[in-house]
Amino acid sequence: MLIAQLSDPHVTTGPLAAERATGLHRALGRVLALRPRPDCVVITGDLVDNGRPDEYVALREIVGRFPLPVHFAAGNHDDRESLLDTFGGTPYLGGGFSAHYHVDHPDGTLVVLDSLAPGGSGGRLGDEQLGWLDGVLAGRPDQPAVVCLHHPPVAVGIPAMDAIRLADADAFAAVVARHPHVVRVAAGHLHRPVTSTFAGTVLTTAPSTWVQVSLTTSDEPEVGLVAEPTAFLLHRVADGGCVTHTVQVSHAAGQTCWF
After folding, report:
1. Which long-range contacts (CB under 8 A, 24 or more apart) does 250-254 make?
2. What are the pLDDT digits (tens) for 44-82?
């Protein structure tokens, strides 16, 4: 199973819309040029910038003609109600009316979590969702599982971002550790590619399709945005494990496709 993980497009409308929309469209075109093509695309949060209904309409226009399955995770810049109003009941949310869901593929299980905690930039899953996750993972123990969410559950050494990571990371880790068939935890939020051990498996965070966060490891109150290359992650789930490739988009001469 091949999963392309894009993240943090921050789609918006108005004068600042073009660069973000182009970044997402270009990344999706790069996905289509891969051979073999991935089984699906997951966008791990901050789908839009302000959570406005018109931004989700703009997002729908960008992805609407894309020929591969696309699944969305909610981030702290998203609005759950507007997301569900626009995409509820569609394959973008697993066919249901919840921002956490799972999709059973023949060769693996894709689980998408909702770490959006209204009123702040940090994330939280909550006991109810963690109980649901435990049950979903227990349902297919013989198939590898990839668990996706927006907020990373570990500190990565960028203090400003570590302050707004997943708040209930220990409870999340306890669930994941009970299920050794979880071959990857995939997050966004950092606007940087980062790899870490986590709960007996591997955590990877995807870069943004728009702009990256500076590698600020000092105690600065804010981090900067830098025009580093945009990219996405390609997860190859096979033989009971997962291998992840970083696929450059904006600074590469890689083949792309229109859709």
Report:
1. 250/23, 250/26, 254/30, 254/33
2. 999 999 999 999 999 999 999 999 999 999 999 999 999
Backbone angles phi, psi at 43, to 5 degrees: -110, 110
pTM above 0.90, yes or no: yes
Taking only the tens place, the pLDDT of each residue in 94-139 is 999 999 999 999 999 999 999 999 989 999 999 999 999 999 999 9
Per DSSP, 92 falls in state G
Give the DSSP per-residue string, 93-150.
GTTSSSSSEEEEETTEEEEE---B-TTSSSB---HHHHHHHHHHHHH-TTS-EEEE-S
> Using one digit for the tens of pLDDT, what is the confidence trace for 22-32?
999 999 999 99
How far apart (Å, rounded) are the C-alpha atoms in residues 103 and 132?
14
The pair of three-digit structure tokens given for residue 246, joined into one six-digit string: 């970083």
Domain limits of the chain? 2-248
CA–CA separation, 221 vs 34, rounded Å? 39
CATH code for residues 2-248? 3.60.21.10
Alpha-carbon torsion, ordered 26, 29, 31, 37, to 10 deg: 180
Q: What would the two tokens of residue 199 be?
A: 């709960």
236's enclosing H/E stretch is strand 231-238
Residue 216, judged by CB atoms within 10 A of its CB (0-12, 13-18, 19+), counts as: middle
